[in-house]
Design brief:
Rossmann fold; N-(1-d-carboxylethyl)-l-norvaline Dehydrogenase, domain 2; 2 domains; 12 helices
Length: about 300
């Protein structure tokens, strides 16, 4: 059973959040700060306790969470984890789901999103929105995330006020799977930007200029961007904790890009090269290392 804690204001949906990792914890905190009733679940109990102390209710299982929620948000590592939360023992599918919505913030293959949505609907009648996010841990903490969604228009509007407690923007991109496809486009841009900014930063260092001043020098020009201003200082100063994202996550997404590109006959030479660089970074620094450690690949051997 879920613990009793904060109660909702009249008319507000009961919310749930599954997956309290780098993104899920700050996103759930923002829902609590907005005054909503939030029930939380995570595979490891240690991540649940701080949110319960902040006013969340504890669910013993995903099924328990959906029983006590009208809208269940989820952010886990990959499609295998999503499937386990839904269809594993005491998963979401074991709860009555008619009239309820599951909003998946995870980044998974668009085909997997469509298949999981259909299986869940067939199992218990719950609706599905695929809603991957962009903005990293900083965006999750600040509520400045960009969220791209696939699903029914009415369902998107139903969740919009709650999502905008966690994000700056929610864009409906089309039917189920469209949010995931949009996230892949995002990852092409972000993954390539990380690789290119690492290259530019190393060139500046090796050529003897003050690379730390690149963001200042290029601000307002065509090269300026949020990645330039955020990534370059962290790369140069070796700031990797907390990570903006894991190497494994970026590599997973770029591998999915390659798969969808092959299925749609789309040439993606830049994204493919970025994927290989992140594969090298994974071999050098480990799957859980910060994605910005791609910069270290070009460091001179000592």
């Amino acid at each position: 059973m879920a613990d009793a804690s904060r109660t909702n204001s009249p008319g507000a949906a009961r919310l749930g959040y599954l997956g309290l990792g780098l993104m899920g914890t700050p996103m759930a905190r923002r829902l609590l700060k907005a005054g909503y009733q939030v029930t939380v679940w995570n595979r490891s109990e240690g991540k649940v306790a701080p949110l319960v102390e902040a006013g969340a209710r504890r669910a013993a299982t995903p099924r328990d969470l959906l029983v006590n929620s009208d809208i269940a948000f989820m952010c886990v590592t990959d499609a295998t984890a999503v499937e386990e939360v839904i269809f594993g023992p005491e998963g979401l599918a074991a709860s009555p789901g008619a009239g309820k919505l599951v909003v998946d913030f995870s980044s998974i293959h668009p085909d997997a999103a469509r298949q999981l949505a259909k299986r869940l609907k067939d199992a218990n009648g719950a609706g599905w929105i695929d809603a991957p996010v962009s903005g990293g841990t900083k965006g999750a903490e600040e509520g400045s995330l960009a969220i791209m969604a696939g699903g029914e228009a009415d369902d998107i509007e139903r969740v919009r006020p709650y999502v905008l407690a966690m994000a700056r923007r929610l864009t409906h991109m089309g039917p189920t799977g469209a949010g995931q496809t949009t996230k892949l486009c995002n990852q092409v841009i972000v993954g390539c930007a990380m690789a290119v900014l690492a290259e530019a930063s190393r060139l500046a260092v090796n050529a003897g200029i003050d690379a730390n001043r690149l963001p200042e020098a290029l601000a307002g020009g065509f090269a300026d961007s949020i990645p330039l201003q955020l990534f370059v200082p962290r790369m140069l100063q070796g700031i990797h904790s907390p990570p903006l994202g894991h190497i494994a996550t970026m590599l997973k997404d770029l591998d999915t890009v390659a798969d969808v590109a092959q299925a749609t006959s789309t040439p993606v030479p830049m994204a493919s090269l970025a994927g290989q660089l992140f594969r090298l970074a994974k071999a050098a620094h480990g799957a859980e290392a910060d994605a910005l450690e791609i910069y270290k690949l070009s460091a001179a051997k000592r």
